[in-house]
Structure formats: C-alpha cells, structure tokens
Amino acid sequence: MIMSKRILITGVSGFVGSHLLDLLVSNKVDFELYGIIRERSSLEKIRHNVDSIELINCDLVNLGTVLNVVKQVKPDYIYHMAGESSVKLSWGGSLSMVNNNIIATLNILEAL
After folding, report:
1. Rounded to whole angstroms, what are the CA distances from 108 to 19, 28, 50?
2. Residue 91 is part of a domain; what is its CATH number?
3. How many distinct structural domains can be found in the chain?
4. Predicted TM-score of the model (pTM)
5. What share of the chain is helix, strand, coil (3-state, %, to 5)?
6. Nearest alpha carbon to residue 11 among 60, 52, 49, 69
7. How far is the C-alpha of 101 from the C-alpha of 20, rounded, in Å?
C-alpha cells in the first residue's frame, strides 16, 4: 500500500503561503495538505481552498505545540512561510519580530 506524501505549510493563510496553496491545489498535487494558522488568522485568502487542506492552529513560538503538530502530521515536506515581514512593525516590536522570524524557525528545526 502506497501512502501519499504529506505537505505542511506554515503561514498558509498569509500572502506567500496562500499563493503556494493555490499553486499546489491548481496543479492537483497528489499530497495530503496541512496548514498551520494562528488563532487570529484570517482565512480570507484561502477560503476557496479550505476544503483541500487540513488547518491546524499552532503557535510556532511555543516549542511544545510545534513538536505536537510535527508528530501528528509526520510531514514529508515543510514549506515555512510564516513570519513577520513589516519593517515598520519591526522598529516598534523587535522582540515580536525575533520570536516570529527566528524562534519559530528554530522550533520547526528542533521538531524535525
């Protein structure tokens, strides 16, 4: 029995993540799709593909929740599209920027 491959996309509801999801769905990629979102994430950019992906709430800054998601999904591929990109916000919230761009990435690597 051949098991299908699993793709996990962090930041799937954001600008880049939603476009990646569009590409994978439009190319009819034969994978199980999983997407990490935050509790406060808007699903507007992915509403047309919401039936094609299993969405998982996860705080990427929390190593325990990241470990649980990776253990649950057992992804073959991870596309890490989550992060803060606003230069303006970085000036007023450097700790948030470090957490969302560095600690979150470190947690994903630790989980692997």
Report:
1. 21, 27, 23
2. 3.40.50.720
3. 1
4. 0.90
5. 50, 20, 30
6. 60
7. 19
